[in-house]
User: What shape does this take?
Amino acid sequence: MATTNHQHPPIINALYDDDDVLLKGVKDLKAKGYTIAEVYSPFPIHGLDHAMGLKRTRIAIAAFMYGCLGLITAISLTYGMMIVDWPMNIGGKPSFTWGENMPAFVPIMFELTVFFAAHLMVWTFFIRNDIYPGRKAQNPDPRTTDDKFLMEVELSGDKEELMSLLRDSGAIEISEKN
Amino acid sequence: MFEFTGKLKRTTFILMLIGAVSIGASFFVGGEHHEADHTEHHESNAHHEDGEHHEAEENHHEEANHESAAAGHGHGGHGDHPYHADPSEGDKFHKGASRSTRDHNHFYASEEHHDAEHAHHQVANKPWANLLVNNFFFLAIALGALFFLAIQYAAQAGWAIVVTRIMESMSQFLIIPGIIMIVLIVLGLGHSHHIWHWMQEGIMTPGTENYDEIIAGKQAYLNGPFYVIRAVIYIIGWVGAAMLLRKMSKKLETTNDPNRLWVKMRNLSAGFLVFFAVTSSTSAWDWIMSIDTHWFSTLFGWYVFAGMFVSALTVMTMLVLFLKKLGYLPEVNHSHIQDLGKFMFAFSVFWTYLWFSQFMLIWYSNIPEEVTYYMARWGEYKGLFFTMLAMNFIFPILILMSRDTKRNYGFLVTAGIIMIIGHWLDVYIMVTPGTVGSHWSLGLIQLGTFLGYAGVFLFVVFSSLAKAKLMPEGHPMLQESKYHHI
Assistant: This one.
């Protein structure tokens, strides 16, 4: 515990019962120079990521590359199976070159592009967010899965000042994370 | 309030003048001078294999390409005429099928007479086909805009209200290509041109020289009076909806109860969408698919609709960007622009999906009566065919995939210009092979006609934009649209 305290500043939890109040609180605290470590909410709040100053996700770039990987896989798959290894005459179609038969392979190319992009994107998301089967829930307060919103603020400077700021912003409960 | 300045007016007038000159020149050149026509063809088409063309031209009267067609199905000397494909194979394998027998079949009835006559028709068709391509392309843009407008009301969508005035103005153009379309149809029935092959005299009368059994079998649907009635119904329905929606949208500003009127507009839009769902398909069959009268595709209406919608979305986005550049539409923010870009991207992919669905099934089954359509587009038109596909699929998907490019005006305009040209080429490739065959050309006349139509279109759009506020005041969802943020 001591080592983690050394690495991270202490965290103050503030509980809200309205997403608009929370959003305004996040903006006010950011404006005062505090760092918002995390926000827990039962539903996505529009504009929250921007207000928290989160970087834009790069998962779109990853998805594009996964899609390209899927496309290449599909092309090599069809080429290997249908042209090189075992050319098959289906419906009298020329099976000697990949190019002549390409329209027949388009559905495969499309499906594998989507498959690779979608599945690898999900796994990337899991890995980047440290989510894996059997992991213990990190939620500091179960009520945030129902109708409450919780904000974790990194404590810097005077603790009492931050506490009063949070009280003024409309938080209904304030506690220190242990 | 948008001001239609003298400078803009002058530009549209110059475009209209170019169009008038081009259409005049097309009738002067296209109808009379066969030789001039041919040289123009060779000069204007760089990516065309000249050697193959000459060969095909020589073979034209001898019908020598029948052997090669039967031997190497799908490759070889097919460039010349789609309907002369492999009768020998057909005789062997499809004795019962009327398409392959020479008796009672227009295309095999009297080859020598028919070929000479057909070549003459094809050259004479050139100016008319050019007119039809541009007329249909711009009609599609106006109709696509009207469809998008109706969707906004029927779906009770809020985000796009700040740009509905642009859709309204675009749909006001419908009446002009609509009337020209009816004129074209009436002239066709009067044998002034031969765009629609089934209109030929005697083609449905047994015993006459031109008799064609297959075409005669379609008489219940493809006959003069019904054809004209249908066209008139389409145009009245579309133009009526466009004018009513425009009128009601203007009335929203002054009425005491905008919510009530808005519900009325929603109902009208929903009714129009049902009408449009049927007529967009049937009009595509009537005006485009019946050019290749023997051929049919159940997907054709949707394919034409997809091209129509994506062209309209693209033109609309270009107009929004243009107005923003002039300093209008401050309410349109980056989120609106990105959403319009998304629509362009998504419906490019949708168009490709439908295009490919139609192509692959026909390619895969390889049935002579179906595959003729792509045979005609594979030989002479191969270069255009693939250029069009690249412009309508590969460019938009690569340019507009990223979020940042959809918010960048430069990228959007680049993609938009490529897509507009691409979809114009798509319409060109739908119409031209069946009407002018190997006598096609792509040059100043086509460009000029396009610019002329663009001039009239922009004139109508800008004048109707200037007649009302750019924001539909009184619309219950205007405020929501102004706050649109993604």
Q: What stands out?
A: The radius of gyration of chain A is 26 Å. Residues 1-5 of chain A have pLDDT under 50 and may be disordered. The CA atoms of residues 49 and 55 of chain A lie 8 Å apart.
